[in-house]
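Q: Predict the assembly, please.
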Amino acid sequence: MNVYELMPELIKAALNNDRKMLESTAIMISKKIRNKYPEVSKNIIKSLSMNRAFTARSLNSQVPVDHESRYELANIKEPIDILPPILNAQTLKKINDFILERNSINELLEQDILPPNSILLFGLPGVGKTYIANWLASELKLPLITLDLASSISSYLGRTGQNIHSIFEYAKSQNAILFLDELDAIAKRRDDLGDLGELKRLVNVLLKELEECSYSCIIIGATNHPELLDNAIWRRFDRTIEIQMPTESERKSLIKRHLEGYIKLFMPETLDYLIKNTNVVNAADVCKLCEHIKRQIVLNKSSDVNIIILEEVFALNPPKSKESKIAICKNLHKNFPKLSQRDISQITQIPLSSVSRYLTQRKENE
Ligand SMILES: Nc1ncnc2c1ncn2[C@@H]1O[C@H](COP(=O)(O)OP(=O)(O)O)[C@@H](O)[C@H]1O
Ligand SMILES: [Mg+2]
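A: Predicted assembly structure:
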């Protein structure tokens, strides 16, 4: 298409309020006239990036509400500074790349490149998806508009399509990040035959809204159940990033971050044991465990900090069979030679006589 043929497209897009079309047509025009009218071409790009600044939140704008119940449909949080999520290097790089691209919009537009505007985070519960959305808001200094689909679908089924539409309209009018948490809620309900028609309609509403979002509106989706997500929804996201369970070195960083100031109170062996034996839980539980340990340390001043920690770690995954009870007692005895049999009994809640028997068995076998 030449520039003249693009004009009607541009006008149509403006009249239809179709920002995505408007922006991509404007970029095409700017590209085509760059050699002949470099200044005009630059001005087009400038107005595209200015437009972003002009969409800054006006404090008067109302958060959309459900028409019948009048409940606010989304939760809005101003960005606050939080520490970076603890992730493996590749995952963190993908997220940092997105931040870099979003912070380099003008540079990209000048090269006729559209920045990415959507990310889908998927992974098991408690790996930090919601945290990452908050961190992105903090890094990009944008408010986070959260739409929790799990709760909005169940409470407003029947009006959810309209509600999703108003949230997107609202998000598009703000300079903010729209966070679609528990995105699979839409898909999950598809199993429920009674709701099939309604949910199909919802998926279509969501697809249309995602499709129409221009680069200026950032969308983050999160799901614990990627396998339930509609393929078409999946494809609408520019980036899909799997967030994995924390490895040993990530657990070490999480623990060091959360127990900062307390680590000097216990033995290095205890720290190692804590890091190794939290392999059964996700990042959120590692953080919760550390907070719990801190409370215990503060409230039980007379107790040995090492024993407090070993007790808490033991409670994460108590052994079921006699063999594993024996193994744990032996393991504690080997790693912490200073622990008495009474200490081991306190940590494991196994009667002292049994502990004693398990440990002498070991000696006999040797
Ligand atoms: N990768 C991580 N790095 C740092 N903190 C984390 C991480 N994952 C979880 N957390 C902590 O656990 C809390 C709960 O995690 P959350 O983001 O709600 O997990 P998800 O949304 O994946 O279920 C977070 O607020 C944060 O304090
Ligand atoms: Mg979450």
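The chain is about 60% helix and 10% strand. Residues 85-87, 125-131, 283-284, 287 surround adenosine-5'-diphosphate (ligand 1) (CB under 6 Å).
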